[in-house]
Design a protein that fits this description.
about 30% strand, six-stranded mixed sheet, three-stranded antiparallel sheet, alpha/beta, 2 domains
Length: about 240
C-alpha cells in the first residue's frame, strides 16, 4: 500500500491537511487531485507519498456521539466533564482549552501537529513545540462503505470527510496509547470540535469556538512513561480501521 499525505500552508501557517492509505498508483493519482482541492486558501501544498510494508488493523472505530450547545462556554464545560470521565483532571483539561483558544504554537497561531500534554501535570511533552506530533498513516479499510453508513445515519455530505478523517485519527490515537484527546479545527468556518477516549468514545461538540476564529488544534493527554513508544506508533505505524 501507499501512504499519501497532503499538507497546506499560508504565510507559513498550517491551514489544511489530509491523508489516505491506498493500494494502487491509479488511486494515488485520483486522490491527489481530490486532496489538493481541500484547502480554501494556500501559498504552499506539500504532497508526500510513501510505500507502506506493514499494516495493522483496528476492528472497530470509537463510538460516535454528537451534542449541540447554545454557546462556547457551555460546550467547553461539557468537554471538561467528559475528559474527567477519562481521568483528566479539571485543571489540566482547562489548561488544554486555553492553549487551543490562544493558539498552541509558542510563536503564535496554529501547529502542524498535536500537543502532547502530561495527564498529571499539564506539562507539554512534544519534542518540537512548533511542529507538534502528527498522527499519520491511518485510514479506513473500506472508506466508501463507511461513507455510506454515515449518510444513512443522516450526516450531511459536507461533514462526512471531516468526520471520517477525525474519527480514524482519534481511533488510532487510542490504539497507540493516547488516554484522551481534545480537538477543534483551525478552519474559521467550522466550529465543531470533539473529545475522544477509550471509555467515552468520539464525542462531537458544537460550538467549540466562535465562527470566524482561525485558531484550533489538538491536545493529546498522555503519560510520560511510554512517550517514545507512543510517538513511534502515532508517526510510523500504519493502521486501517475496519468498521464503525
Amino acid at each position: 500500500m501507499y501512504s499519501l499525505r497532503m499538507r497546506a500552508e499560508k504565510e507559513g501557517m498550517h491551514v489544511s491537511g489530509a491523508e489516505r492509505l491506498v493500494e494502487t498508483i491509479q488511486e494515488v493519482q485520483k486522490l491527489t487531485r481530490e486532496l489538493i482541492k481541500r484547502p480554501k486558501a494556500f501559498d504552499k501544498i506539500v504532497i508526500t507519498l510513501e510505500k507502506v510494508e506493514k499494516i495493522e488493523t483496528v476492528p472497530k472505530a470509537l463510538t460516535i456521539y454528537s451534542y449541540d450547545f447554545k454557546c462556547v462556554e457551555d460546550a467547553h464545560n461539557f468537554a471538561v466533564e467528559k475528559l474527567k470521565e477519562e481521568g483528566i483532571k479539571e485543571e489540566v483539561a482547562r489548561l488544554a482549552l486555553e492553549l487551543l483558544k490562544n493558539g498552541p504554537n509558542p510563536k503564535g497561531g496554529n501547529m502542524r501537529g498535536a500537543v502532547l500534554m502530561d495527564v498529571e501535570t499539564g506539562e507539554r511533552l512534544e519534542p518540537d513545540k512548533e511542529r507538534g506530533i502528527r498522527t499519520v498513516r491511518v485510514d479506513w479499510k473500506n472508506r466508501r462503505s463507511i461513507e455510506q453508513r454515515l449518510k444513512e445515519r443522516g450526516i450531511k455530505r459536507y461533514y462526512i470527510n471531516r468526520l471520517l478523517d477525525a474519527l480514524a485519527l482519534a481511533t488510532k490515537n487510542v490504539y497507540c496509547g493516547v488516554i484522551s484527546e481534545l480537538c477543534w479545527s483551525d478552519d474559521p468556518d467550522y466550529t465543531t470540535g470533539y473529545v475522544a477516549g477509550k471509555n467515552i468514545g468520539y464525542i462531537r461538540i458544537k460550538p467549540m469556538k466562535e465562527y470566524g476564529v482561525p485558531l484550533g488544534g489538538r491536545v493529546y493527554f498522555v503519560r510520560k512513561d511510554n512517550l517514545h513508544q507512543l510517538i513511534e506508533c502515532l508517526e510510523k505505524r500504519s493502521v486501517l480501521v475496519e468498521g464503525l
